[in-house]
# Entry
Amino acid sequence: MRWDNLSDHPAAATADPALFGADAVVTRTFDTPEFRGITFHEVRARSIVNRVPGASRMPFEWTVNPYRGCSHACVYCFARKTHSYLDLDTGLGFDSQIVVKVNAPELVRRRLASPSWHGAHIAMGTNVDCYQRAEGRYRLMPGIISALRDHANPFSILTKGTLILRDLPLLVEAAEVTEVGISVSVGFTDHELWRTVEPGTPAPERRLDVVRRLAERGIGCSVLMAPVIPFLGDHPDQLRATVRAIADAGAVSVTPLVLHLRPGAREWFTTWLHRHHPQLVGRYERMYAGGSYAPTWYQRRITRQVHELADEFGIGPARRGAARRIAPPPPEREEPAPTQLTLM
# Structure
């Protein structure tokens, strides 16, 4: 396993120092049902607030990723390739060999306190999910959110995990001093598709419960409808059912994203396709013959359909790259001194 000379992106490998060295790695396994078959590599990272490469399509410049690898085991995950930088397998290894940057909270706090830091927006959950199952044990996000809150630094979180509700009080506190954006990823509501393509994630309705809970607390939550999977999750009836469920959950916006298959993810997804839907292999080869992304005409068609449904159900697409403000509850009005105690 290669730990030295590691950076978060191959384009930066020659310029940045290693994120951690082999002498800083502790490997653990836990004999509990939720972690059975998973190996955790605890590391003390040398940096955690990372700049997104200039060639990236991402609408943000800085990220924090406290984990590498993900037990959600989504067969299409574009981040699978990052495991190859450690000489780890991008298939089952990505799902079961989880790198945990145990000092992530202190590194975030140190970076935000640096005179060279100017309060740029930080995106989380953009590589692997920061609320995957490991977070239930390692509890890195409360310290990270607290640091961002204390420095009034804007941030956003994208997740498929319901564990984010644990940190709801911290998120509300942060929103009182800075811009906070929360998005939940729900690409479809089809249970048969979910069980095979996203086997380690909470069910779609549980993720939509997160949206609902946030809305009940006055927190506007958007939904990234991703991925829309060609030939398996793109039938008009499926799109309608998903957008309706998103609207019923109280999402403030929905943004569709068609499946893209980067190297690493493409091979693993194709293996899954051969096993579960061999009749679609040829159609996928033709659709993705031009590279990692579906043809522009197809992406536009899906986007138009979803936006039309969103309009029908009273929600709209998110403004790309925008962080959504989580408004604190309005202050209580001052009333004249009562003559009798009340329950409110």
Residues 282 and 288 are 10 Å apart (CA to CA). The chain is about 30% helix and 15% strand.
